[in-house]
Write a structure and sequence with these properties.
14 helices, alpha/beta, 464 residues
Length: 464
Amino acid sequence: MKITFHGGAKTVTGANYLLEHNGIKMLIDCGLNQGGKYAEDLNYQPFNYSPSEINYVFVTHSHIDHIGRLPKLYKDGFRGVVYATKATSDLMEVALPDNMRQIQIEAKGADHAALFEQEDIGGLMSLVQNVEYDKSFPVGDVDVVFHDAGHILGSSIIEIKWKVAESVGGQEFRKIYFSGDLGNPPTPLLRETEKIKDADYVVVESAYGNRVHEGRDERRQKLTSVIKDTVDRGGVLMVPSFAVERTQEFLYELNNLLNENKIPKLPVFVDSPLAIKMTEVYRKNSGYFNLDTKYLIDSGDDIFNFPGLKMTSSTEESKKINEVPAPKVIIAGSGMSQGGRILHHEARYLPDPNSTILFVGYQVDGSLGRKIQKGDLEVRIMGQTVPVRCHIENLASYSAHADQPNLLEWVGGSVSFNGGEGRLKKVFVVQGEDESSRTLANLIHERYGVDAVAPVTGQEFSLD
């Protein structure tokens, strides 16, 4: 077994890992690079392997930095099988066309040919086969299991097992686990991240590998305070939000705060056609929710609807938000302010000292969101210079990513297995910026005595 890192190495986005074993070629994820022109230009480069030779793709979850180049893979010759949970494939059917439209806009401005077309999405989706959690299935001469990652709806940890030898006691196997993106438990909607205990190798994300999230109680208190303060100032609360998970979780939290009279009733707008469509997918896949959320739904509480909430799908409805006097809350995509309707609201309200922008997700280096978050006094939006005078707030614990302690605990399960006689041989730390990846790799080595490395793009390792 051999692994090569073709993306997601010392960078948060662009996850793309190639496994090769006995003539079989398997990809784990094929994501879009995000965060500035250099990252985006990488998406148009040829793959460093032949797409037509890839036999299988395993999709950890439906975020664009994990699936965004799959239609290009199909366009360039891939005709194998794509494995994903049903919820992931449902979300992909909504996310990929929306992503295509955004890419086409960017490509036109950068004088690029289209990365892929609608027919490539259709062709790709025809290759998808749905899998259930915790059920092993054979692929060539390896066995694969999808486990619940608790990150977003349908997200998965992927376990791959292969035989390495015959012995007197029977067959000897090795296992590698790909974390995808791990959840930030306890999440309001989803089940806990499944633990692992018998890994020989681990590929683990590190978006927050050098940070610790605030606690859930502290998070609710801070959100309550941010809303109340913005209301008292008569301002607008802008929330750049990812269409999958962050928007749904934020609505769930607002619903609870209103039910408990913790915050005043005020207009709340979800100004994102994609987030609205994704919320409908959540409604249809409630079987992935945790027991508490199922109980709320069964009791008649529509967790994605409450007094004052308005979903604005059309452009006309979006424009009418401006006519609603403050205070109000506007939740809009994209989550890193790299496009979407949030740009129009930021251009209007970033200069307002009474308003607030609240970041509830990771802001990749080079993105507009990161520039605002770090305190730039002015930013460029849609070709114009916009001063930043509003309040800037962060709630990292709304991130769907595990923080450093949770990442360490998850990896450590394969060290403490069987009374400390775990078989973990090597950990590959990926999907984080350079400092975050190196910090987590060093901590894993120091704490567990296990070889841990933050690979670079193109680096190859033998797993036997």
